[in-house]
Amino acid sequence: MTAPVLTSWQAVADEVLARIRRRDWAPGDLIPNEVDLAGEMGCARTTVNRALRHLAEAGYLERRRKAGTRVALNPVRRATLRIPVIREEVEARGARYDHALIRREEGTPPLAVRSHLGLGPERPLLHVVALHLADGAPYAHEDRWVDTETVPGFAALDLTQQSANAWLVQNVPYTRGTLTLSAAAAGPETAQALGCAPGAALFTLERTTWKEAHPITWVRLSYPPGHRLVTEL
Amino acid sequence: MTAPVLTSWQAVADEVLARIRRRDWAPGDLIPNEVDLAGEMGCARTTVNRALRHLAEAGYLERRRKAGTRVALNPVRRATLRIPVIREEVEARGARYDHALIRREEGTPPLAVRSHLGLGPERPLLHVVALHLADGAPYAHEDRWVDTETVPGFAALDLTQQSANAWLVQNVPYTRGTLTLSAAAAGPETAQALGCAPGAALFTLERTTWKEAHPITWVRLSYPPGHRLVTEL
DNA sequence: CAGTGGTCTAGACCACGGT
DNA sequence: CCGTGGTCTAGACCACTGT
Asked: Which terminus of chain B, N or C, has less C-beta within 10 A?
């Protein structure tokens, strides 16, 4: 029998993954403990630990103290989406970025937004509507409500110079957030801004962020028909 | 000056994150190297390394040998989406799962599918169309092409008993895949299956998977209007 | 209670990549 | 060249949890 002597946690991880793929260890199976694996692979337990921890984070293994390490029943891989600043998203496509402010006014947000942020109707927020452009063409429509109590300084911004998106990312680190992806039919206003037909299918991304317990902002980005968000598995 | 003596990599990570949030270390700044931090925090360099590695994976830091560790300019957080088997997705909502096979036949996939899989027109694939149900109501429409050369055994499956989705996940681990999210207007056939109006905005998820260099399957899942994919940041 | 993973340590060597 | 992160090691103790 071969005793390859795998040093380096990557090699150990590769070998374990190979055994899983080869079905030496089938989904649901208990695999040997760290000490035994270290002996077999000819390396320190720390190294095996690093490898197994990595595979567990990647979703291939499930580990529990005392219970041991099992091959995950369904390799539920996590798709990781990068959520960049729109400017960078546009420039990464090799296009020129611009943005246009459509509206900016104080007001009471609709119930859906209030409940997302956990605010009552008495709290006025700043409503900002803008259009992001790539090479002059509509790229995304932004509908945003900002809590100016949590974010002092925002009210004084000249949003024609700098997008709310960019300023907030640079200046207000959030501690918690929620992201919702969906499809929605274009309303008349959004359709006009994006230059598409009313009722067209828009890819929609809603994000709510908090700083500790205080809401920062709720924002909905609507992308014109055909927009795709791609990620590797 | 306080010298808290932080043992445990979590505590070190928390402290570093706190300094970033507090702007002690601003975006783009170089932070002290591991040896110095270990000295300051009163722990081993290994512990600091673990903490910084964690923060780098989470997107807060950028690390390069010799160049040192910098606070990331834009805290581009990665949203991680769980992509489960649909059955589990449905049952997690407390609903009863069912599926119905709509079509199953061999044929040549459309150009878009062929190019995604990197196949020429001479290779016939198996085309499977099915509907996933939650408590009897349409939950998702599935349009799938399977390469039966890469996946022997699939052709013999009784797809009325078991969904293609479930079988593939259990039996054909993929090594690489692509996930595309978008919105699309419902075609007549999809609209009828989902019980919505033609042209309605559908949330659409396309996935292509390979086993090494061989394509396994291309699948498009269409969710009825109102469907949302939610994740924490 | 006892087995298993989780973590810390102190020290060492290595690999990359600015200067 | 040489500073910085990347990793390995051997050993130790701890924390959780199944039996």
From this structure: N
